[in-house]
Structures are given as C-alpha cells and as structure tokens.
Amino acid sequence: MVEPRFFETIAPIYDFLTKLFMGGTYESMRKRMLNEDTSQMEILDLCCGTGYICNTIEAKRIVGLDQSDAMLARNAKVKRDNKTLIKGNAYQMPFKEEEFDRIYNSSASHEFKLFSRLLKKSYEILKPGGKIVIFDIYQPKNPVLSLFMNTFVRYAVERGIMFVHTKEEWRQMLQEAGFVVEELDVIRGLYIFARASKPLNTAVNQPNS
Ligand SMILES: C[S@@+](CC[C@H](N)C(=O)[O-])C[C@H]1O[C@@H](n2cnc3c(N)ncnc32)[C@H](O)[C@@H]1O
Fold first, then answer.
1. Which protein residue's CA is at the shortest distance from atom 16 of ligand 1?
2. Are 176 and 122 in contact (CB under 8 A)?
3. What integer pLDDT is reported at residue 156 of this predicted model?
4. Residue ranges around ligand 1 (CB below 6 Å)
5. Does 87 reside within a domain?
6. Most buried among 7, 38, 104, 113, by the most CB within 10 A?
7. pLDDT at 63
8. Is the pLDDT of residue 3 over 70?
9. pLDDT band at 23 (very low <50, low <70, confident <90, very high)
10. In a domain, 209, yes or no
C-alpha cells in the first residue's frame, strides 16, 4: 500500500495529474462504470479519493470511504445532500451486511496487497443482486506494456509499491469471493475493468473460505 502521506501531498493536483496520465480513458471509463440508472440505489465509493465516482453518480444514498484527509477534503468541496464521506481503512469497512446496491472501486485496487479481502467484505455488504464495479491498472501480458507498467508506473508513479494482477487472477479473485463475473475487459492494454454481481440466491454460490 502506498504510504498515506503520499495522497496528503498529492491531493491538490491529483485530478490534474490523473487526467493527464489517463488521457481520454479518464472520462470514457467513468462513463462505462456509470452506464446504468443508479438513482434509486445505495452506493459505496470505496477509496473514493477526490470524488471521481461519488461526485458524479446519481443515487439515493452515496457513501465515500477513504483514509486520506486531504483527498476527502478535496472531495468535500463538492456538496451533495445525499453524500456522506467517511475517513477509514478499507481493510476495516464499517458497514452492515447487505447495505449497498453497488460498490465502486476505481484506480485503487493496486494499493492493496490483499485486495481479495476487500472483495470478500464487499460481497458481504452488497445486497443480493448487487454489483461491484472495478477499474484500475493491471498486469499486462504484452512484454512492452509489462515493462512500462513495472518500470515507469511502478517506480515513477507508484513509488515502488504497487499490486497488479493479470486478467486471469482478477477472474479468480472475484469468483473466490463469490461473485459472478459479468464483464472483465482489458482496456488499452493497461487497465482492467470488471463488473461482477452477487447472486440473488446466495445459497447457490457460497464464497470460498
Ligand atoms: C489513486 S487514488 C483513487 C481515488 C479515486 N477512486 C479515483 O478514481 O480518482 C487511491 C485512493 O485510495 C485511498 N486508499 C489507499 N489505501 C487505502 C486504505 N487502506 N483505506 C482507504 N483508502 C485507501 C487513497 O487515500 C486514495 O485516495
């Protein structure tokens, strides 16, 4: 996990740098993540940062969780009546079972050595039929892109601490947590996009323990 101090420093220019690094992918991925009517749903933006998802999405209730004061302070500049921001560690999410219809996790999974733990907890706190939507950098198979990811991105952007997974590892992690994988796509050779659902009848798809 990147040291929390990193985001305290970078928060004022985080949005600018991310748009610069991601180019057109910044908006196209947000559009894909938010491609359904969520206006009556209860939403968790897990590792919400400055609000890429939680300041754009339409929902009945929006909860953003992040551990960085500075990122949350930027996020809080956008006032929304139905939004609650919580400072906390994603490894210890303070939520009840079956609380949310959707969980979003964008550009953050690579911060976690044990992202599978977050997936298991996400499964618990989603309602049956609920979905998790994930977007992040991943571990490319292409040797040139892999070199780029594991040199420039790993050391210049992430300061040496970065956990990325292949597409196959993503599928396995999601399935082991109990999810049904609906979409799992590599985007522009560098990113992974996943949408996975918790079955309506959870008795038939118990997560592996
Ligand atoms: C690269 S930013 C992504 C922010 C936002 N989701 C976006 O797409 O712009 C990663 C975020 O994860 C947060 N984060 C990292 N580790 C965390 C943890 N253990 N618990 C909660 N938040 C964490 C950081 O504070 C940061 O705001």
1. 111
2. no
3. 82
4. 1, 7, 18, 47-49, 52, 66-68, 71, 89-91, 106-108, 111
5. yes
6. 104
7. 98
8. no
9. very high
10. no
